[in-house]
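Re: the request from the purification team.
They wanted to know what the chain is likely to look like in 3D before they choose a buffer screen. I agreed to run a prediction and write the result into the notebook, where they can find it.
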Amino acid sequence: MSEIDSLQASAEAAPSAPNVEGSESGQPRRALLRNIGSPEIDEAHVWMSKVGLTFPTHLDDTHSIKVAMLRAAGLTSKHRNKRPKVVLRGINFHARPGDRIGILGRNGAGKTTLLRMIAGIYEPEVGRFQRNGSIVPLLNIMLGMDGFLSGLENIYARGRYIGLSKVDMESRVNDIVEFCELGDDILRPVRTYSSGMVARLAFAIATSVRADIYVMDEWIGAGDARFFDRAAKRVENWIHDDTIVFLGTHSDGLVREWCNSVLVLERGGQVAWCDVEEGIALKNKILLEP
């Protein structure tokens, strides 16, 4: 049995997702997924069925004089070393309002790639993917920050980037400025800020928008302890019971605090969708393997 077949078989044998109140027929979500086909519902949700994605990998060996000479003579194919890399395979879940899903796995397991697909940055090559509801992707909170603009100008520029009008941003400016604690520095160019000041400003802007679905990478655990405590409190106040949250992280503590289920990935494959403690134990077991 190939590695892919083995992983998919283990995913099928993995424990079902926890039974979440509101599921049809009282079935666990993972079992429900197999029965619904494509969900036809108006509420916010994210649904994936047998989703997969590959990236092209170019193994460029033109630094070899021998290979360069053979290619120049037409004796070897310049395409022979292009091999697709499987980055996601067999992803199955159905997230609904109130689901806060931690995405766990070692480095390179596919956590960030899956988050980017949920956010709409990547599209699946195989399988089916459906998303309904407004979404705020918090994968790179520095994206779009212009060092030559002032902090205040960046607030409005970022607002335009995420589709908000100047009037929309004006209603948020005071809250953003108060949270990032920049004072008069908000009028200085961002390139004169320390990295901590930039992070506070970027985070305040990114979390000023409410949505149905939030996608967060492990940056949330970065920074000094005071910033983390304030950021965590802001996120807790900003996430409601009817929101959907995806959090990619290595922190067991964050998962225990914020999540109510877990997706465990290994080498791009879904190993399990299960409850938090079971998922953490499985992830830690995987980390002990070579």
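For the purification team: The CA atoms of residues 172 and 208 lie 7 Å apart.
Please add any questions underneath this entry.
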